[in-house]
Design brief:
The protein has twelve helices and eleven strands. The chain is α/β, with parallel strands linked by helices. The protein folds into four domains: 56 residues, no CATH class; 74 residues, no CATH class; 119 residues, Rossmann fold (3-Layer(aba) Sandwich); 59 residues, OB fold (Dihydrolipoamide Acetyltransferase, E2P), CATH 2.40.50. The strands form two sheets. The protein has a six-stranded mixed beta sheet with strand order 6-10-11-9-8-7, with no helix packed on it. Strands 3-2-1-4-5 form a five-stranded parallel beta sheet.
Length: 350
């Protein structure tokens, strides 16, 4: 299970690119040497050793060009296409074994077999690569093996929940038991936000990467980067829904709209904001607690302080206690459109 380290991941990507360039160069060179060797061993096949080397280099360059053309194709897409090709061959084999073409001339039979196998293989590949790939993903790349009787839950973090940072406390306290996944396309979005020209947006992206780095360094937390992507989808939220559907995972988010869409798709959405509200302490008249007076109130002798969750507390007879931590007793509550406003009295300890 791979841990998340964004800086290390970027360095590894650069090293991987350089290694691939080196492997391509070696491959083209070996193809040229192979062509040269074939012309020496079999002089009847090629006019000269120079032609053999050039032919070998041309073949090597052709394969590298094919590789570069398909560089956006993931291993999962390739495996799905291969899976579809083999399934497409099954009806071709059945037709060939049925004896339908035995009365045709031998040359015609060869052409019919070629068209049948190529045609059905093509259909199988195209069907496997169409938009609804979930069945192939479940059968091949996304299949999960777990011990019998042991259920492992998958949880996917979206971009806003990573930037929020409260997922760290939830994971450290073991309120979530399972595999926590950060999709590669979410990590890429975080990098884009961190590189933004907008200072506030850039700061949010760097904060999210910092939280992921903290998670990687924490021995109590294990996060896994998932390489899956849906290249035909441009919207990150749509990709999250599809990946969560494929992995049968729960989605951790702060986005209410994304959570509603997830629920409409039969997924479980865990909203950190709603969790915070549910765990918020319910203040009642008569409660006594310490509070720091931060500013003067609108009325005479009033001071104002704030609870950890941002709730405003108006304290009578506390204007002269600015900056001090005092003991207050709740007298009444007022429900407003912005939330609850608490009114309290200064209750000094005897």
């Amino acid at each position: 299970m791979a841990s998340v380290n964004p800086i290390l991941a970027a360095n590894q990507e650069g090293q991987k690119f350089e290694l691939m360039q080196f492997v391509r160069l070696i491959f083209i060179t070996l193809c040229g040497l192979a062509g040269f060797a074939i012309s020496v061993v079999q002089p009847n096949l090629l006019p000269s050793e120079v032609h053999g080397g050039l032919y070998g280099l041309s073949v090597g360059c052709l394969w590298v060009a094919i590789d570069l053309y398909f560089q956006g194709v993931s291993l999962r897409s390739f495996s799905a296409a291969t899976f579809g090709m083999f399934f497409g061959m099954l009806p071709a084999l059945i037709l060939d074994a049925s004896g339908l073409f035995v009365y045709a001339p031998e040359r015609v039979q060869w052409v019919i077999r070629l068209i049948t196998f190529v045609g059905f293989s093509y259909l199988g590949m195209i069907l496997s690569l169409r938009s609804n790939k979930e069945d192939f993903y479940l059968l091949i790349p996304f299949v999960r093996f777990s011990p019998k009787g042991v259920k492992s839950e998958n949880y996917i973090l979206d971009t806003c929940s990573i930037i929020d940072g409260r997922f760290l406390d939830i994971l450290r306290l073991k309120f979530i038991d399972g595999v926590v996944i950060v999709p590669k396309f979410v990590l890429n979005e975080l990098h884009q936000i961190a590189d933004s020209t907008d200072p506030n947006r850039s700061e949010s992206g760097r904060r999210g990467l910092h939280y992921l780095d903290q998670a990687q360094k924490d021995p109590l937390i294990t996060i896994r980067i998932h390489e899956a992507d849906f290249y035909e989808e441009k919207d990150v939220d749509t990709k999250l829904i599809r990946l969560a559907t494929v992995l049968q995972a729960k989605l951790i988010t702060n986005d209410k709209t994304l959570g509603k869409i997830a629920e409409l798709n039969g997924l479980v959405s865990l909203n950190l904001q709603e969790l915070t509200k549910a765990l918020r302490h319910q203040i009642c008249p008569g409660d006594i607690f310490p509070l720091r007076i931060q500013k003067a109130g609108k009325e005479k002798d009033q001071g104002v302080g704030y609870l950890d969750d941002g709730t405003m507390v108006v304290v009578n007879h506390a204007r002269d206690l600015l900056g001090q931590m005092i003991r207050v007793e709740v007298s009444s509550l007022l429900q407003t459109t912005a939330g609850v406003m608490v009114f309290a009295e200064h209750n000094p300890q005897n």
